[in-house]
């Protein structure tokens, strides 16, 4: 079997994940996973797709990641690994990996303070007239 690659994104982090059969070594930007992510919780996030599918220690992973914070980077790597595993055997791993879906940051529209703000016009209901007041 040859090397499989996938892209994982979370917030501002973008991870290019290369998956090949091996001993379970994970390398992030040329460093071992334990050296790149010091917290055990972040390493747990990265290893979740392997634990869910029961393939822990069967694949070597090489990751190139840019942008974002450490939590966003860990989640981007998780999504990239899940997508790469899904490419390998869609039927076997798809149902187990279904919960690991893509999430991106909310888009901030021009002239609005918050990304979640829906419109610049405030419409309120006037109980006296029974209509909407702009």
Describe this structure as you would to a colleague.
The chain has 134 residues and is α+β, with helices and mostly antiparallel strands. The chain has one domain (4-97): 2-Layer Sandwich (Ribosomal Protein S5, domain 2). 34% of the residues lie in helices and 26% in strands. It is built from four helices and seven strands. It has helices spanning 33-36, 40-53, 70-88, 90-97; strands at 4-10, 13-21, 26-28, 31-32, 59-66, 124-126, 131-133. The strands form two sheets. It has a five-stranded mixed β-sheet. A two-stranded antiparallel sheet has the order 6-7. Strand 6 (124-126) and strand 7 form a beta hairpin. Helix 2 runs parallel beside helix 3 (70-88) and helix 3 packs antiparallel against helix 4 (90-97). The longest helix has 19 residues, at 70-88. It is globular, with a radius of gyration of 21 Å. The termini are far apart. The mean pLDDT is 83.
């Amino acid at each position: 079997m040859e090397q499989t690659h996938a892209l994982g994104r979370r917030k501002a982090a973008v991870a290019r994940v290369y998956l090949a059969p091996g001993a379970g070594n994970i390398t992030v930007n040329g460093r071992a996973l334990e050296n790149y992510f010091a917290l055990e919780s972040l390493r747990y996030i990265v290893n979740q797709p392997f634990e869910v599918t029961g393939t822990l220690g069967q694949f070597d992973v090489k990751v190139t990641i840019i942008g974002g914070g450490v939590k966003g980077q860990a989640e981007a790597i998780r999504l990239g690994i899940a997508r790469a595993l899904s490419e390998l055997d869609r039927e076997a791993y798809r149902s187990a990996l279904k919960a690991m879906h893509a999430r991106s940051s909310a888009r901030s529209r021009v002239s609005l303070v918050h990304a979640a703000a829906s419109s610049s016009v405030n419409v309120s209901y006037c109980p006296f007239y029974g209509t909407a007041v702009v």
